[in-house]
Structure formats: structure tokens, C-alpha cells
Amino acid sequence: MALTLFRALITPALGLLAPGRRVVIVPDDVLCSLPFHLLLTAAPGSTAKSWDVPFLADRHVVTYAQSATVFSVLNGQSGNSLPSRPSLLSVAPGEFGDPKITPLPGTVREVKEILGRFPSGAATALLGKDAHRQAALEGLTRKPTFAHIATHATSSGDDAEIILWGRGEEARLNAADIEALDCPARLVVLSACDTATGELDLAEGLMSLARAFLCAGAESVCGSYWPVDDDATAFLMSSLYTAMLGGVSRSESLWRAQKATREQWPHPKNWGGFGLRSE
């Protein structure tokens, strides 16, 4: 199926795609939930090692956009240059006030690893009980360069929400809350399950948490297509920030991070679950 889709959707444009050139996908309808970067560009050889197969991501840096107009506007706002002192807001409850919710200790380790990439005073960490709804809202309105949210999430249409510390509604940040923010972050990373998916609206596309942050003013959002592995994701995210803070573009930084993660965790479910929107 991945090869059939490549031939139907990408092959007609191959003459326009020089090797290594970035490809921006503006999907429509059911294609909104398709990770194009994982399409196969050729049939795997009979002697290929497990998952040593030719993905579109091997040829191109692939990013996604809500529309060509939105991409054009956002892509021209700031380029890939960073402030002289980029700032980070990181949010990771790790444990939750509701005992029915499974703890995620790996997310706290993930965030602490990323914090080490930033100079003292440039990063704000909301961990454990500090990672509650009001603190997250206040932190996002302070206009950090990067916002990194590592926790549980749900992706069901108007009920799409991020799960934080606490109980009931006070532990949830929903899409409407996010869309009401003024949050012009260069990049919002949603290191949670299914944050790039949601119910399909034929006019608006996927009603995802990633879309909510774009509506709030974020230049780009890194979201996930499926439940992700803790260890592989922590490694990928650390690699992502290392590249970005080294001056590499957000899109190529994610591509490099996925490539590095693939070397240790070859299955695409471990390295291919994240996509970048609207850079």
C-alpha cells in the first residue's frame, strides 16, 4: 500500500523534485492523516534487512502545511534564524492527580535532557504538580521560542485535549483553550500520542491539537500520528533540539533526528511517528 500510494501521489511530480529538495505536503480529505514521509519509493529487495527499505524520507525532508497560503505566510515570518537567547517552556507532569491515568516517568527524563541544551535562565520547566492547566496557559502566553509538552493527549475532535496535573477539567487543556491563546512560538513540540490526528472536517482538515496551536499563532508544530515509544521519543527529541540550537532549520533538524533514531530503533513506529507542520 505504501508503494502504491507513492506511485499515485508522488510519482507524477518526481520531475520537479531534485534529490535532497524539501517537499511540503498540503494534504486534503483522508490524506490529512497520511504520513507521506513513510511512503515507499521502491519495492524492498528480497535480501533487505528488517525495515531497511526505501522511504520517501530517505530522499527528501518532508513537512506538512494546513494550506499553501498558511505555509507561505508562516514561512516568511522569521526564517530559520533564532533569537540570540532562545527560550523554552517545557511541560511534563510525569504523574497525574487522577490515579486512573497511567504515569509517564519517561517524559520527565525527556524534558530534563532537553533542558540541559539551554543556558541557565533561558528555560522554564513545569514538572510534576507544577504542570497544571493554569501554569501551562501562563507559560505559553509568555511567548517562548520553543514550547515542549510531553504528556498524555486525546484527539477526538472538539474534545482533543492535553492531560496535565490535577483532576477533572482543571487537568485538561483543550483545543478551544489553545486556540484562544496568543502563542507565536517558533516551534511547539507535542510529545504525546496522536497530536497530529483528529476528526476530519472537510473544510478545515484534521481538527488536531497541532492545528489548535497553529491557530494560536505558532509558526510550526511537531505532532505525532500514533502512540509513541518513550525511549525512542526521548532520544529523537534530544537530537531535534541539539540540531536546532546548532542553527539547523526545524524541518531538517527533525529529519536528522529521525535518521539518528532510526539507526537505534529501525522500526518506523519508533522514528517516523512525528511530522512538522507549517515551517
Largest sheet: 6 strands, mixed
In DSSP terms, counting alpha (H) and pi (I) runs of 4 or more, how many helices?
A: 10
Q: Give start-end ranges of low-pLDDT stretches.
A: none
Let me know the number of strands. Answer: 13
Rg computed from alpha carbons, rounded to a whole number of angstroms: 18 Å
Q: pLDDT average, as an integer?
A: 90
**Structural class of the helices, strands and pairings?**
alpha/beta
Percentage of residues in DSSP E strands: 15-25%
CA-based shape: globular
Distance between the termini: 28 Å
What pattern of helices and strands is seen along the backbone? HEHEHEHEHEEEEHEEEHEHHHE
Biggest sheet, strands in spatial order?
4-3-5-9-12-13
Report helical residue fraction.
Answer: 25-40%
Task: Characterise the protein shown here.
Helix 8 packs antiparallel against helix 9. 31% of the residues lie in helices and 17% in strands. It has 10 helices and 13 strands. The mean pLDDT is 90. The longest helix has 16 residues. It starts with a helix and ends with a strand. Strands 4-3-5-9-12-13 form a 6-stranded mixed sheet, with helices on both faces. Strands 6-7-8 form a 3-stranded antiparallel sheet. By secondary structure, the chain is of the alpha/beta class.
Produce a short descriptive summary.
This protein has 279 residues and is an alpha/beta fold. It contains ten helices and 13 strands.
